[in-house]
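## tool: complex_structure
## caller: assistant
## args:
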Amino acid sequence: MTIREIDSQEQPTPDGHLQFVEVGDYTFETGGYLPNVKLAFETWGTLNADASNAVLLLHALTGDTHVARGESAEPGWWDQLVGPGGIVDTDHYFVVAPNMIGSCYGSTGPASIAPDGRPWGSRFPFTTIRDSVNLELRLAEKLGITKFYAVLGGSMGGARALEWAVTAPEKVNHCVVVAACAKSTAEQIAFAQAQTAAIRLDPQYRSGDYYDAASSPSAGLGIARRIAHVTYRSEMELEARFSRQNQHEENPFSGETLAHTRGRYAVESYLDHQANKLVDRFDANSYVVLTEALMSHDVGRSRGGVEAALNSADDVHFVVAAVNSDRLYWPAQSDEIVNHVSHGDGVFIIDSPIGHDGFLTDIHQLGPVLNEQVFSASKAPQGN
Amino acid sequence: MTIREIDSQEQPTPDGHLQFVEVGDYTFETGGYLPNVKLAFETWGTLNADASNAVLLLHALTGDTHVARGESAEPGWWDQLVGPGGIVDTDHYFVVAPNMIGSCYGSTGPASIAPDGRPWGSRFPFTTIRDSVNLELRLAEKLGITKFYAVLGGSMGGARALEWAVTAPEKVNHCVVVAACAKSTAEQIAFAQAQTAAIRLDPQYRSGDYYDAASSPSAGLGIARRIAHVTYRSEMELEARFSRQNQHEENPFSGETLAHTRGRYAVESYLDHQANKLVDRFDANSYVVLTEALMSHDVGRSRGGVEAALNSADDVHFVVAAVNSDRLYWPAQSDEIVNHVSHGDGVFIIDSPIGHDGFLTDIHQLGPVLNEQVFSASKAPQGN
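## result:
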């Protein structure tokens, strides 16, 4: 993404460029505290006169604000849905995509500088999905949006969208939840635990205070990503792509002893590549903070359970979708959502063999449903 | 298990007590070399005059030789199948259970002392399933067994059993393969990679030479076990047992910042417990060696593929079983085995909600099939 600091509203910010807003001090659910929280976000399109055409788009765990290309050179992660003339038509809607608190794509995160001039590091608060919504509510207020026409997200972005609908149902008209769940499951917590433990085990992690060191905990973060990535893909897809093949000329039987580095299987090389890509673009502390936030996800917490919480969002219109081969956010978890909301037409199944990541690669399949149930001309806000 | 070193055959060894045999020098498939390899094993029952009643039982990744209680006080891991009057009736069969090369339950492993007086450590060879069979063939010869009436194993033990049938089909009458596959899949390799990487990341691992240090790589081994254990259980079982519950009075929302230790979810405590149990009983280097061996598993390697390899074992009678909720060794992988063997009656499904570990907890379900197809009186060897 292209970064552009905006100090005044004199010139409109181009679509798909990073902007920042200060949303004040904040005390987190766990008791942690941050002064002067800054949220980064991108926008596309123009807010209409009665602010009725705003759409909130929420990214996944390691995602960023760059949902759509806009006027930048870089592709967005939901270009299939968002753009001029698209399903979420930025010629008609004002799309806002905030970076989640704790992330490393512009909003205040562990790498941000604290008032004492040092990065927050280990002093950064544990964060919940609910905290992120509370802060994004402030962002909406700053932008003059009292109610979003629609809130959409996939994976952790879906958890954020659902939490939005329950925390502030009066501010959400349509809520689109893709490949997510009402509350993180035991298995999701279990895989997350191993990931954060791997990062913390890395001696370069230094308990989270590694920003002034020569090296960062890339090995630990890489292991976390490997674990996560396997859960993002289906067994079938991994087998079809890699089976037991060697990586090119490498020979997995070439290491004589434990002291030797043997050649790799192709799937190992693939996961090394996925790990290296993430390490190059993501901060280990942010990975821990956001993974912990995802573990915390439960729209029913302190609200009498999932059913009561979802019932309370009885004016929100839901579209819930799942990937049929997803083995991290099983389609049955999407069923649990639609079973308890007042307005929702069953679970739309994205048909993809690759697993959870279908919420990115195959999101175009959701286009007709979104068009019909949310963004069609007859249902669109008229204030533009 | 009770350890008893046997120097002579004057007194028969009690059932279910550890014995040792030296099987000579060995060059591994990867080129590594060990002098004077020692294999540990336990036996139950008595070998008959024509040595036709021998049964080989092969343990899983972190398993040991103690398949059945025998005359020891400790329960065995397949007590449901093996014992006097049992399905594998030790009043009629002579059961042999070797510890796999590289393990830490008696056979030569990384913690064993090399000729220079130091543990092998990082000098220990990478090992394959095929290496383990080659060494166990020597054990059989030492014991005077030219052909096993049956070879049985589950999980990695199933891989070992299948490799036995293909490496030495003339030495195997019946082969029983439970919750295993013909070749390790991309996903199995992927999860294994993350596990070995976590161990190697642990600063206490010291590249495998930690035996003289004050501490061992328990954190890394614990993470490996956590990852593995999740794959051993079904999502459904984890959810039913733990869901998002807190661990007793612990509060997962009690940590203010990354520097704090928060309370745990119940599933985290459960996995901590599983990790701690393994760390107390298993060696990290052995875990790496055996995990690498399992990654190497492919009965079709250098044999023209799985189909040709299994076809070559055309005199062996197979019983293949899978756990219906297993998501590490999917039942379809068992189908691949029976589809290519000459004698095999389809896949017997063990009905268990818990996942892969059903090969231990619910193995009794296989009893009637084993009785009918392998161990019934009419089919049993007559030389006793």
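## assistant note: Chain B touches chain A through 67 residues (CB under 8 Å). Chain B has two domains: 2-183+297-375, 189-291. Handing back to user.
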